[in-house]
């Protein structure tokens, strides 16, 4: 037969054990409820989903072998993505990703860049004042209104094929 003191000690140990277990269980329950609500919004952990639109290539001037191309890149996913490469079968001389920069003397220059980040739920609009593509234009092949196929390669979303219309400089808006 057990003594009353031993029985009280056993009950108290059981109560303390239950209370000690209740704290992490409650914390995990609150965290799980928060994660469930976040996932329920539909964006938590969703992959990047790139949408590329408004492709334009400036019609090169006579005798000039390079021009510029511009696109609007929208990331409709829940993860950031990065533009890492652009190709086109109609641009045999190559395509360079570039960014407009200003130096200390207020002089502008263009610098090649390796990639361009597009935040989750965000967009990047290429323009002459920001990021654009330097395109080696085929000699007198393009006319205003022509469509030029491009493939934009993103680190997470993979390849996105899009057409860019050839436009006269000054007729393209960048917004």
Automatic annotation (TrEMBL):
Database matches in InterPro entries: LpqE-like, Lxx211020-like, PCuAC_sf
Q: What is this protein called?
A: Copper chaperone PCu(A)C
